[in-house]
Amino acid sequence: MPDESREPADPIAAFLACRRFAVVGASNHPLKFGGKVLAAYRRAGREVFAVNPREAEVQGSPCYPTLLALPERVEAVSIVTPPSVSERIVMEAAQAGARFVWLQPGAESAKAIAGGSATVRILDDSGRLFSRRGSSWTLVASDIRVLAVQQGTTS
Asked: Scanning 1, 122, 144, 151, which has the fewest C-beta atoms within 10 Å of its C-beta?
Protein backbone atom coordinates (compact mmCIF):
# COMPACT_ATOMS: atom_id res chain seq x y z
CA MET A 1 0.00 0.00 0.00
CA PRO A 2 1.49 3.39 -0.96
CA ASP A 3 2.48 5.83 1.77
CA GLU A 4 0.03 8.69 1.13
CA SER A 5 1.80 10.96 3.64
CA ARG A 6 4.84 11.23 1.34
CA GLU A 7 4.87 13.55 -1.64
CA PRO A 8 4.78 11.75 -4.99
CA ALA A 9 8.01 11.95 -6.99
CA ASP A 10 5.96 12.77 -10.09
CA PRO A 11 2.68 14.44 -9.06
CA ILE A 12 1.27 14.46 -12.58
CA ALA A 13 1.85 10.71 -12.97
CA ALA A 14 0.39 10.11 -9.51
CA PHE A 15 -2.71 12.12 -10.41
CA LEU A 16 -3.18 10.32 -13.71
CA ALA A 17 -2.60 6.91 -12.08
CA CYS A 18 -5.77 7.28 -10.01
CA ARG A 19 -8.70 4.96 -10.76
CA ARG A 20 -11.61 7.38 -10.70
CA PHE A 21 -11.83 11.02 -11.70
CA ALA A 22 -14.35 13.83 -11.56
CA VAL A 23 -14.48 16.98 -13.65
CA VAL A 24 -16.18 19.81 -11.77
CA GLY A 25 -17.40 22.33 -14.28
CA ALA A 26 -17.97 19.64 -16.92
CA SER A 27 -19.61 20.98 -20.05
CA ASN A 28 -21.55 19.82 -23.08
CA HIS A 29 -19.85 22.54 -25.12
CA PRO A 30 -16.94 20.90 -26.98
CA LEU A 31 -14.85 24.08 -27.05
CA LYS A 32 -15.12 24.88 -23.34
CA PHE A 33 -12.31 23.58 -21.18
CA GLY A 34 -14.75 21.62 -18.99
CA GLY A 35 -15.90 19.78 -22.09
CA LYS A 36 -12.39 19.20 -23.39
CA VAL A 37 -11.08 17.82 -20.10
CA LEU A 38 -14.01 15.44 -19.65
CA ALA A 39 -13.70 14.21 -23.26
CA ALA A 40 -9.93 13.71 -22.84
CA TYR A 41 -10.40 11.47 -19.80
CA ARG A 42 -12.96 9.43 -21.69
CA ARG A 43 -10.78 9.08 -24.81
CA ALA A 44 -8.01 7.78 -22.55
CA GLY A 45 -10.37 5.15 -21.11
CA ARG A 46 -10.57 6.73 -17.66
CA GLU A 47 -13.51 6.25 -15.32
CA VAL A 48 -14.76 9.81 -14.95
CA PHE A 49 -17.84 11.54 -13.53
CA ALA A 50 -19.21 14.89 -14.70
CA VAL A 51 -20.08 17.41 -11.98
CA ASN A 52 -22.08 20.53 -12.75
CA PRO A 53 -25.13 21.66 -10.74
CA ARG A 54 -26.67 23.21 -13.87
CA GLU A 55 -26.75 20.01 -15.94
CA ALA A 56 -28.54 16.66 -15.58
CA GLU A 57 -26.48 15.08 -18.37
CA VAL A 58 -23.13 15.97 -19.93
CA GLN A 59 -21.77 14.38 -23.09
CA GLY A 60 -24.35 11.62 -22.89
CA SER A 61 -23.69 10.58 -19.28
CA PRO A 62 -25.34 11.50 -15.98
CA CYS A 63 -24.08 14.70 -14.39
CA TYR A 64 -24.04 15.21 -10.64
CA PRO A 65 -24.61 18.47 -8.75
CA THR A 66 -21.71 18.02 -6.31
CA LEU A 67 -18.79 15.72 -5.57
CA LEU A 68 -20.66 14.49 -2.51
CA ALA A 69 -23.53 13.32 -4.76
CA LEU A 70 -21.33 10.99 -6.84
CA PRO A 71 -22.25 7.30 -6.70
CA GLU A 72 -18.62 6.34 -6.00
CA ARG A 73 -15.62 8.01 -4.36
CA VAL A 74 -13.17 9.61 -6.76
CA GLU A 75 -9.45 9.91 -6.08
CA ALA A 76 -8.71 12.80 -8.43
CA VAL A 77 -10.69 15.93 -9.24
CA SER A 78 -10.11 18.34 -12.12
CA ILE A 79 -11.64 21.71 -11.35
CA VAL A 80 -12.72 23.88 -14.27
CA THR A 81 -14.71 26.58 -12.50
CA PRO A 82 -14.27 30.26 -11.68
CA PRO A 83 -11.84 30.80 -8.75
CA SER A 84 -14.64 31.80 -6.36
CA VAL A 85 -16.34 28.43 -6.99
CA SER A 86 -13.03 26.53 -6.87
CA GLU A 87 -12.54 27.64 -3.28
CA ARG A 88 -15.66 25.71 -2.22
CA ILE A 89 -14.91 22.74 -4.47
CA VAL A 90 -11.45 22.17 -2.96
CA MET A 91 -13.04 21.80 0.49
CA GLU A 92 -15.76 19.57 -0.94
CA ALA A 93 -13.12 17.36 -2.61
CA ALA A 94 -11.51 16.72 0.76
CA GLN A 95 -14.90 15.89 2.30
CA ALA A 96 -15.58 13.49 -0.58
CA GLY A 97 -12.28 11.64 0.01
CA ALA A 98 -10.31 12.81 -3.04
CA ARG A 99 -6.52 12.54 -2.85
CA PHE A 100 -5.67 15.03 -5.62
CA VAL A 101 -7.17 18.21 -6.99
CA TRP A 102 -5.99 19.77 -10.24
CA LEU A 103 -6.95 23.43 -10.58
CA GLN A 104 -7.16 23.79 -14.35
CA PRO A 105 -6.26 27.12 -16.04
CA GLY A 106 -8.46 29.91 -14.75
CA ALA A 107 -9.70 27.95 -11.73
CA GLU A 108 -6.80 28.62 -9.39
CA SER A 109 -6.72 31.07 -6.51
CA ALA A 110 -4.79 31.46 -3.27
CA LYS A 111 -8.04 30.96 -1.32
CA ALA A 112 -8.76 27.71 -3.17
CA ILE A 113 -5.31 26.40 -2.27
CA ALA A 114 -5.75 27.50 1.35
CA GLY A 115 -9.12 25.73 1.55
CA GLY A 116 -7.85 22.17 1.18
CA SER A 117 -7.14 19.59 3.84
CA ALA A 118 -4.22 17.39 4.84
CA THR A 119 -5.54 14.56 2.68
CA VAL A 120 -5.58 16.45 -0.62
CA ARG A 121 -2.68 17.52 -2.81
CA ILE A 122 -3.36 20.44 -5.12
CA LEU A 123 -1.84 20.93 -8.56
CA ASP A 124 -2.25 24.29 -10.21
CA ASP A 125 -1.95 25.25 -13.85
CA SER A 126 1.49 26.81 -13.41
CA GLY A 127 3.03 23.49 -12.42
CA ARG A 128 3.16 23.80 -8.67
CA LEU A 129 2.21 21.12 -6.13
CA PHE A 130 0.89 22.17 -2.72
CA SER A 131 0.48 19.97 0.32
CA ARG A 132 -0.75 20.62 3.86
CA ARG A 133 2.01 21.04 6.42
CA GLY A 134 0.49 21.46 9.87
CA SER A 135 -1.88 24.41 9.73
CA SER A 136 -0.68 25.88 6.43
CA TRP A 137 -0.18 24.96 2.80
CA THR A 138 3.39 24.63 1.55
CA LEU A 139 4.71 24.62 -1.97
CA VAL A 140 6.42 21.23 -2.21
CA ALA A 141 7.34 21.17 -5.88
CA SER A 142 7.58 23.79 -8.56
CA ASP A 143 8.44 23.94 -12.24
CA ILE A 144 6.59 20.69 -12.84
CA ARG A 145 5.79 20.50 -16.51
CA VAL A 146 2.00 20.49 -16.34
CA LEU A 147 0.66 19.13 -19.58
CA ALA A 148 -2.92 19.67 -20.63
CA VAL A 149 -4.91 16.60 -19.75
CA GLN A 150 -5.55 15.94 -23.43
CA GLN A 151 -1.77 15.61 -23.97
CA GLY A 152 -0.86 13.50 -20.94
CA THR A 153 -3.49 10.87 -20.27
CA THR A 154 -1.70 7.67 -21.22
CA SER A 155 -1.06 5.14 -18.46
From this structure: 1
